[in-house]
Amino acid sequence: MDLVARRAGVSKVTVYSHFSSKRALFSAIIDSLAKQLTRAIDQLAFDKMPPDKALRVVGRQYLTLALASSSLALHRLVVAEAARAPALGRLIYESGPGQVVRSLADYFTRQRDVRVPDPKLAAEQFLGAVLGHAQLHLLLHARRPEEQRAEIGRMVDHAVEIFCRGILVCEGQRTAPSRATVI
């Protein structure tokens, strides 16, 4: 709290008047960072795009965001703190990835060419396919950041191609293709 007060140019009393504890201050900082990081996705106007294009736009923005140095640092910090403060982990999920999942699930629900029994699960699975091991490579320093980030377009295009084959309704078909149909 001393460092925060010093950097803000205020007294510790002033800091404590706004935040009841270090944990409350930490939560506010993390929440603010998560919202800054997801603002770019919130501003995407993908609602009127066809599914393949919308998924590419959202996927590229999501993966670019997830692989940013600031996102990786936030991820490490939250994972380290979440065991001690589970509410913090939930807050970060809801204000970050959870918000993106909800937006994409809402998009799926409104699209007449998209048939998924569980739009939220479909959104989570798509974002998981986009993220793949890219974030893990960088978190574990298993790959150089510039190499991994150079692959964003290819990784997203691959995930979109696979995903669209499973959710798009083909002409004359009322439900998404079955596994046998896709293969």
Q: Concise description?
A:
The protein has helices at 2-8, 12-18, 22-42, 51-66, 69-82, 86-95, 97-110, 119-131, 134-139, 145-150, 152-167, 179-182. With 183 residues, it is an all-alpha fold. The protein has a single domain (2-182), classed as Tetracycline Repressor, domain 2.
Would you spell out the secondary-structure blueprint of this structure?
Layout: H1 2-8, H2 12-18, H3 22-42, H4 51-66, H5 69-82, H6 86-95, H7 97-110, H8 119-131, H9 134-139, H10 145-150, H11 152-167, H12 179-182
Helix pairs in contact: 3-4, 3-5, 3-6, 4-8, 4-11, 5-6, 7-8, 8-11
Structural features, described:
It is a single chain. With 183 residues, the protein is an all-alpha fold. The protein has a single domain (2-182), classed as Tetracycline Repressor, domain 2, CATH 1.10.357. 73% of the residues lie in helices and 0% in strands. Mean pLDDT is 82; it is low at 176-183.
